[in-house]
Design a protein that fits this description.
alpha/beta; 4 helices; 13 strands; about 240 residues
């Protein structure tokens, strides 16, 4: 890992960075890395971490996924230990895995709301996309506009073990990132759509690495309760 600069106590790691953008990374290998990093954070060996990654095409099935909700298009399906139902990860989507220790004051629900807010603030401030929350639905959405229904731009699914988080958020950046959502009912929600930064702005999509850099300070602000010493950004 090659550190770039200090980031107020968080370590931001860009997996698969090739000098231009994030290349595609295998989901199972990244999941194992999450577990390894999680164990070190729990043990107090390292401070709060955020892994940024772009995955090769894969569906991940949360604990509430029903058999009939599993796709049959040949794309790998990985059963994972987070909550929720099935979702898709693939090229053009920025996935972020914050691995931070929660507190009595900042528990799992507050943590999810803070992830949502970090994404909402990034979308509005950097890309002019007015993301919102929808009552009863996790993630970041765009409101119905009379032509299109409510549509999700960022999915969130987490697991908390030993008071420390795993999994995280998946933000659709390029329009191509939404393609295979047509094979599933994302997160079990049938009356809404999916969208991306490119779909909403009509402009060429930004590089994933640039979106990740834009969201860093928002994550730092929202998750400041988890700050420790040892700041670093790393590219691997």
């Amino acid at each position: 890992m090659a550190p770039l600069n200090a980031c107020d106590g968080f370590t931001f790691t860009y997996l698969g960075y090739d000098g231009a953008d994030l290349t595609e990374s295998d989901y199972r290998e990244t999941w194992q890395l999450q577990r390894d990093v999680h164990a070190r954070v729990v043990a107090g060996e390292i401070g709060p971490q955020v892994l940024f990654v772009q995955h090769t095409p894969v569906y991940t099935a949360g604990k509430r996924t029903e058999p009939h909700e599993r796709p049959q298009d040949g794309t790998p399906v990985v059963d994972v230990d987070r909550g929720g139902k099935i979702t898709y990860h693939g090229p053009g989507q920025l996935v972020g895995y914050p691995i931070v220790t929660l507190t009595r004051k900042y528990g799992p629900l507050e943590y999810v709301r803070r992830l949502e807010q970090a994404v909402i603030d990034t979308l509005a401030g950097e890309f002019g996309v007015p993301g919102i929350r929808v009552e009863g639905r996790t993630g970041v959405w765009l409101p119905a506009d009379g032509v299109r229904p409510e549509r999700k731009i960022c999915a969130i699914g987490v697991r908390v073990a030993k008071m420390t988080t795993m999994h995280g958020f998946a933000l659709n950046v390029a329009a191509t990132s939404t393609g295979l959502f047509g094979s599933i009912i994302p997160c079990g929600i049938a009356d809404a759509g999916v969208t991306s930064i490119e779909d909403e702005t009509g402009a060429a999509p930004p590089r994933l690495v640039d979106v990740a850099r834009a969201i860093e300070p928002q994550l730092e602000r929202q998750l400041s309760f988890a700050l420790t010493s040892g700041p670093e950004r790393a590219l691997v």
